TrEMBL record:
Keyword Signal: yes
Domain called LysM: residue spans: 32-76
Pfam families named among the record's database cross-references: LysM
Signal peptide: 1-18
Protein known as: LysM domain-containing protein
Domain of life the protein comes from: Eukaryota
Tagged with keyword Signal: yes
Alphabetical keyword list: Signal
UniProt cross-references to InterPro entries, sorted A to Z: LysM, LysM_dom_sf
Length: 225
């Protein structure tokens, strides 16, 4: 009974939103820029500009959509009818991972702004225990780890990635990780100085080092600390 009611309500709301079609001739398709201030977040910029967080993040090829650096300039794409304001698929997932090591390189990671053990575990898709075991730095028992601290990443052995140059024209590292079977953390480790690139012309996209098809080479791998 409850299920039936839910599906009826779902169809009702789906019908209403589908009916409320977006008239693309009324959209503001002007591309503009946004100077990032210290109080800006991707959410506040999304609200101010009427673009979804993921449309902004993808247009700027952001490594991490929540990582903003005051003083830099973001590209604000034109409004589109496919822009879904609720889309969070470009954000690093909050899933719980059970992996104990990362297949393929790199073996070291330089922490980014506001990284914690928990955020690093999510970037590399390993369990929090795995990062805690590996991170021996005395100052990071909890909370934020100072930017640019070097951390050892536990590697699966034997394992490998194929690393190739890749012209990054659109998306976030989350999109790339899914496309190339790797993790956000590994793409960050291979490209330690890259954060995002707000070039208006997609053909100007930067070339990054892309770890691809990162896999364990046997079913019985050992963890290298
Ligand atoms: C879309 O907007 C334009 C300009 O405002 C208008 O001429 C047109 O009739 C609208 N189309 C629909 C399907 O509402
Ligand atoms: C606007 O919508 C019409 C009808 O859905 C479509 O044919 C047209 O390609 C769209 N234009 C743009 C610029 O998206
Ligand atoms: C369209 O958006 C641009 C910024 O992208 C803004 O400067 C301009 O005022 C907007 N135009 C209208 C009619 O809202
Ligand atoms: C915001 O953008 C959507 C398309 O994503 C558009 O349909 C809507 O009219 C815009 N709203 C305003 C206030 O500009
Ligand atoms: C992850 O969880 C935090 C805290 O609950 C929340 O602020 C954030 O939006 C979540 N991110 C995603 C991608 O769900
Ligand atoms: C590789 O092996 C580790 C350790 O057994 C495991 O946690 C992980 O899920 C494996 N990775 C893949 C992609 O199968
Ligand atoms: C990108 O992030 C890294 C790590 O937080 C930082 O060291 C670097 O200065 C940032 N680069 C730019 C161009 O802001
Ligand atoms: C960095 O972390 C601090 C403390 O948790 C938080 O107040 C701040 O909003 C974070 N900054 C960004 C840009 O996420
Ligand atoms: C740890 O923190 C203390 C006090 O803030 C500081 O003196 C020390 O240099 C830090 N050590 C490392 C490895 O960052
Ligand atoms: C990604 O790697 C896993 C583990 O080896 C494999 O099962 C899966 O098929 C791969 N996916 C793609 C899209 O290559
Ligand atoms: C897995 O590898 C370890 C060390 O190489 C070995 O001791 C162990 O017997 C292997 N386990 C299986 C199930 O093959």
């Amino acid at each position: 009974m409850a299920t039936k009611l839910t599906s009826i309500l779902f169809l009702f709301f789906w019908g209403v939103t589908a009916q409320n079609t977006c008239n693309n001739s009324t959209l503001n398709t002007t591309v503009s820029t946004w100077p990032v201030t210290s109080t800006d977040t991707i959410y506040s910029i999304s609200t101010s500009t009427n673009r979804s967080i993921c449309d902004i993040a993808r247009a700027n090829r952001m490594s991490d959509a929540t990582l903003m650096v005051a003083g830099e300039t973001l590209l604000i794409p034109g409004e589109t009818c496919d822009d879904n304001q609720g889309d969070t698929s470009c954000l690093i997932s909050n899933s719980t991972y059970y992996r104990t090591c990362v297949p393929g390189g790199l073996h070291t990671y330089n922490t980014r702004y506001n990284d914690t053990r928990a955020s690093i575990a999510l970037k590399f898709e390993v369990s929090l225990d795995t990062i805690t075991l590996m991170d021996k730095s005395a100052n990071s028992t909890a909370g934020i780890i100072p930017t640019d601290s070097q951390l050892k990443i536990p590697q699966c052995s034997p394992s490998q990635c194929t690393v190739q140059p890749y012209k990054f024209t659109y998306g976030t590292y989350v999109d790339l990780a899914i496309q190339f079977n790797t993790t956000v953390g590994q793409i960050m480790a291979f490209n330690p100085t890259y954060n995002y690139s707000g070039e208006a012309d997609a053909s100007e996209g930067p070339v990054i080092s892309m770890p691809m098809n990162c896999v364990n080479l046997t079913g019985n791998v050992t963890v290298i600390a």
